[in-house]
Amino acid sequence: MTSKVLTCRQARWAEFLSEFHFSITYRPGRLATLPDALSRRDNIYLERGEDFISKNPMNLQQIIKQDEVQPSKFFAVKVESFSNLIDSIQKKLWQDPQYRSILEDLGKVPNNSTIQLSILQKRHDSPLAGHPGQEKTLKLVKRDFHWSGMTQFIKDYVSSCQQCSRNKNIHHKKFGFLKPLPIPNGPWICLSMEFITQLLLSDSFDSILVIVDRFSKMAVFIPTMSSITSLDLAHLFIKNIFSKHGLPLSIVSDRGSLFVSSFWTNLCQQLKISRDLSTAYHPETDGQTER
User: Which keywords, in A-to-Z order, does the entry hold (predicted)?
Assistant: First the structure.
């Protein structure tokens, strides 16, 4: 209600609540047991002091130094160190009799790759196992065996299984059929265009515009500069192609900046020329001109 900028939902609630006259007061948790009895039980709260949990001991020291909280109010200060916690749990597990009884029932495999491979061949490669995935193979082996580094060993084994790689399920969409460019009905009806750039400077030219007739395979090589604009491209096309062979029906090209520019796009639309752009990073679409 005090924010300067409200969202649409907050504005609707503010307009609705403005019709009422009310005051906001604090209600202790022990008086609100029915709405959320599990999390509002008053008997689980400590009667004295406060609990402060800090994952960083430096933050706790800064709070005390700044006198934001008096040390006398602290009932318990818990500094969580996850690495030490995990180490202590692992040490206690070996002292747990139930945990040790479970390990005693498992076959302890020595650090011998030959024995470990023979176990995996029975749990993964056999016809009864059916080449399961990494998680299922791990569960099958864990039932009877245990050795150090078993999880990573099983993952590497399953990922390198040739039969699993050949027969694994396909989760992506099926690939489409290859559709080659149709053969034109006559010469200079369907063209393809490409630039050859980064050439040595010759007569103030460092690039070549290649235009190929897809029907007769006749090619036109036009010297130009790599700094030309889409307007310059239109002038070259009209001077060397349109003036001699007329307008084509379609032009195949890559997705270069000149071929996708708004000027060239609008020009082709006005002249009723279909622009057939190749797929990104697939120059084989226009392999004839690329070569």
Answer: RNA-binding
Give yes or no: residues 127 and 198 share one domain.
no
Residue 92 lies in a domain: no
How many other C-beta atoms are found inside a 10 Å radius of the C-beta of residue 109?
A: 17
Q: Which of 290, 272, 282 is nearest to 219 (CA)?
A: 290
The alpha-helical segments, DSSP class H, found in 131-228 are: 134-142, 150-159, 162-167
Per-residue pLDDT of 93-140, as tens digits, reads 666 666 666 665 566 666 778 888 888 888 888 888 888 888 888 888
Count of CA atoms in the C-beta half-sphere (13 A) of 116: 20
| pLDDT tens digits along 141-179 | 888 887 888 899 989 988 888 888 888 777 778 877 878
Whole-angstrom CA distances from 142 to 59, 92, 121, 254 are 43, 21, 14, 55
Whole-angstrom distance, CA of residue 254 vs CA of residue 290? 10
CB 214 within 8 A of CB 192: yes
The model's pLDDT over 64-75, given as tens digits with 9 standing for 90+, comes to 555 454 444 444
Same domain, 202 and 137: no
> In degrees rounded to 5, what are phi and psi of residue 74?
-75, 130
